[in-house]
């Protein structure tokens, strides 16, 4: 099993791709889940926001966003209910 197949099984990831765009490296990670509703997608990067019960503290996406921004990049999430979610990271070259 290759790295991409292992990632797909472990994270239930539909796929990922990266490319060069102008002076950026663009990394997109997507899944084919149920998607995230429009009222939630705007909040999921906020600290301590979570839709899960249990020991989840809602800091994972906040940490990713802050680390990417500290490196001069940007982080965004797009989602449509029923069509999955795409997380996009842009890093300057």
Automatic annotation (TrEMBL):
It is an enzyme of class 2 (transferase). SUPFAM superfamilies: ATPase domain of HSP90 chaperone/DNA topoisomerase II/histidine kinase. Residues 25-93 form the Histidine kinase domain. GO terms for molecular function: protein histidine kinase activity. InterPro entries: HATPase_C_sf (IPR036890), HATPase_dom (IPR003594), His_kinase_dom (IPR005467), Sig_transdc_His_kin-like_C (IPR004358). It catalyses: ATP + protein L-histidine = ADP + protein N-phospho-L-histidine. Pfam families: HATPase_c. Its EC number is 2.7.13.3. This is histidine kinase. It comes from Tianweitania sediminis.
